[in-house]
Amino acid sequence: MNKSDNEMGPFGRSFIGDFPTLGSMLLLLTTFFLSALFSLGNLISFIILLVLSSLSVIFMCYKFIEPHFNNKSKNNLISPVRKINFSLESGSNRPEKSMSFKLAIKFFFKKWADYKSRSSRSEYNWFILFSFIFNIFVEIIFTITLFIIDLGNPESISTLILIVILLILIIITIIFYLLLFIPSITLTIRRLHDLGYSGWYLLWYVLISTLVLIITYMINYYLFIIIYCFLLIPSLLIMILPGENSHNKYGPIPSNQSDGDSFLINL
Q1: Distance CA 207, CA 51 (A)
Q2: What averages of pLDDT result for each successive group of 10 residues across the chain (267 residues)?
Q3: Could you point out which of 49, 154, 168, 176 has its C-alpha 20 to 30 Å from the C-alpha of 130?
Q4: At what angle do helices 221-231 and 200-219 cross, to 10 degrees?
Q5: How far apart are CA 179 and CA 168, in angstroms?
Q6: β-sheet bridge partners, residue 248
Q7: Phi, psi of 173 (to 5 degrees)
Q8: CB distance 95 to 255 below 8 Å
């Protein structure tokens, strides 16, 4: 560590790296607590303060704070702003065959805690299809069960049995969704890694989009629908854009094949 690194101290070193760094995330977390403190329990004031302060912190960190400390760093780890490649064609180094549905679901559960490596477009999209089919199946089962209960006699034993079955199905569905929650997050992070982006962008996207949707819903329902459709664009880009055509800092190009124990979690 050189003299400039010692002069920065732990605070300055927390801003070394690609945006958003640990220091930027801590500042964003601070804005949440300060907004809650100064809003005095008023929800609208809290949302307005949080949005304004968060956007200000993001702008200051990205434009001034992180470039300042990265320029002082010996390793100069800051990366230039990447341009998104909107070509849908995979590079020559990418695997020719897509991952199979069975293997994608297997990887999804096996790599539930792997947030460091990369996942291909096919691996990610097979899970999206799996979630879509599962949601349709759940909706059909619930709709049929509720329809039968509505037609039956509320005091009959068969209706009570159907209600119990419905409650059991609801519990099972909630448990299953909870089991899918963490693996879906890590899969999205690995997909971002394949595109060459940090997984912290997922947290940034979720926080900003949630706040924007809450505000727009309170203002106007139709505006809420428009903004919601607009916020779906990043999710669609993750689904359709090919990954980087070479080894990046998150690992090699996904092979779309089972490499024995290669899919085991490497914590």
Answers
A1: 10
A2: 51 71 78 77 75 80 78 51 52 76 92 90 92 90 84 77 87 91 93 88 84 82 84 84 87 79 38
A3: 168
A4: 160
A5: 17
A6: 251
A7: -65, -45
A8: yes
Structure tokens at 55: 């956007």
Q: What pLDDT was estimated at residue 262?
A: 42
Contact 250, 118 (CB under 8 A): yes
State how far the Cα of 132 lies from the Cα of 126, in Å rounded to an integer: 10
What pLDDT score was predicted for residue 72? Answer: 65
What residue has token string 């037609």? 151
Per-residue HEC secondary structure of 83-136 comes to CCCCCCCCCCCCCCCCCCHHHHHHHHHHCCCCCCCCCCHHHHHHHHHHHHHHHH
pTM above the 0.70 mark? no
Indicate the residue type of 91.
Answer: G
CA angle centred on 54, ends 22 and 231, rounded to 5°? 100
SS3 251: strand
> How many whole angstroms separate alpha carbon 71 and alpha carbon 54?
24
Which residue's entry shows tokens 């702008």? 59
